[in-house]
Amino acid sequence: MPSAKTIADLKTKFLKPALTSQYEVTIPLGSLPEGIKSIGGGLSTLDQADLNLSCMETSLPGSSLATFEVRNDYTGVTERLAHRRMYDDRIDFTFLVDAEKYFAIRIFEKWMRYIAGEDTDREDGEARITRDVSYHYRIRYPGTGADRTGYRCLDGLKITKFEKDMRNSLTYEFIGAYPIAISSMPVSYESSSLLKCTVSMSYLRYVMTELISPTPATTIQPQATKADKENTQELPVAQQKASDVIQNTGPEGEGLYDSATGERMLSTEQQIIEQGRVGDRVTPALAAELQAFADGR
């Protein structure tokens, strides 16, 4: 049976969606083979931070389950049973290229040259000339487990999705990642635009780490409603002539005065002394008794 939902429930559940612009990419240059880190005389901590910060676009990875059909267990029923988890074949990272070092282009080109074995000398001592027509190369061994001589980044390549309050996050860590393609980067004499380098990386699988904090108890304060139109009508005559008792100094000295008429307001004791009565409901006999009480008789 459908359940009723209040406006407060809808605000709490659906008016705080996650945003795509709050994420962080970590590319562990320090864990790469020495042949890659030798670019430009060596990598620094600043290069690491700049490369991570310059990643302006990527995507959270996806996966699926491969299934096979079973048709003979139940009459007329076809079952699909999972037998393998399939990960996406690649993930793309788009970097802004800096004008001082072209670092994003150089580091991934260096990584791919290292994979292809283009930067190593021949075992027979023959000089390797990359511009030679007869030039050839041999792909390196990928490396597994504790072997760090291969070209794959075994761990440390991460994408972290978080929000502004930094309370919740999802971290995807890619195992055995390495670049397989660098997209072409058009340049033109027409209007200038930002130079971007898009790198596609392959990986074995990813591991997701969840950090979800308990939801704090939130209360939605009711909003004050405003009138559609401001009341411009004049007050009724009775309200216009309404008076207040104010403390002031008038012609008769300091005391209480009527704000509307300006007349001095007498206290009960003064009314008894000066007029011998208190309002219209006080009889002369009662006024005499009150006067005697006031005089201490």
Query: Residue share in helices?
Result: 10-25%
**Helix and strand sequence:** HEHHEEEEHEEEEEHEEEHH
Instruction: State the end-to-end distance.
Output: 83 Å
The rounded Rg comes to: 43 Å
Strand order of the largest sheet: 1-6-7-10
Low-confidence stretches: none
The strand count comes to 13
Q: What structural class do helix, strand and pairing data support? A: alpha+beta
Major β-sheet profile: 4 strands, antiparallel
3D structure, described in words:
The chain has 297 residues and is α+β, with helices and mostly antiparallel strands. 20% of the residues lie in helices and 26% in strands. The chain contains 7 helices and 13 strands. The strands form 4 sheets. The protein has a 4-stranded antiparallel beta sheet with strand order 1-6-7-10, with no helix packed on it. It has a 4-stranded antiparallel beta sheet with strand order 2-5-9-8. A hairpin with a 5-residue loop joins strand 12 and strand 13. The mean pLDDT is 79.
